[in-house]
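On to our target:
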Amino acid sequence: MAHVSNSDGADSNNNFRIKEMRYLTRSIVILALLTGLIYIRVVGMETAASVQENHRVSAGVFLFGLLILAMVGLVCGWRWELIGGLIAVISAIGIALITYFNVSEYPLFSAIAYSSPFFIAGILMLACWQRAHTNS
């Protein structure tokens, strides 16, 4: 079935809006990746010290793995928005849960702070994918 539109101007305006949304999303992804690098450094240092001291695996190891997975999702989302967005959102939910249940001071704030960059970027990727596929 062929796609028929009322005017070429509406299609070009819609394509411009999709591109504009992708640029905004990719800008936020870059900021989330930079934030993730800081989180990985902090969590990695604390986890390494904890494992050396206690000689057992702590929740920090899982948090570190989910941070890596969320960043991989953001990088994948640059090309494949659906897959990357899903990976980032699911990882962000896992990050929030692990942080909430393992931080003693201000658990809700910590959960939101650690997970929100990946969650927001992932939701925006999914929105870009949805918008591009409903209009094509």
Remarks:
- The longest helix spans residues 8-54.
- The chain has a mean pLDDT of 89.
- DSSP finds four helices and no strands in the chain.
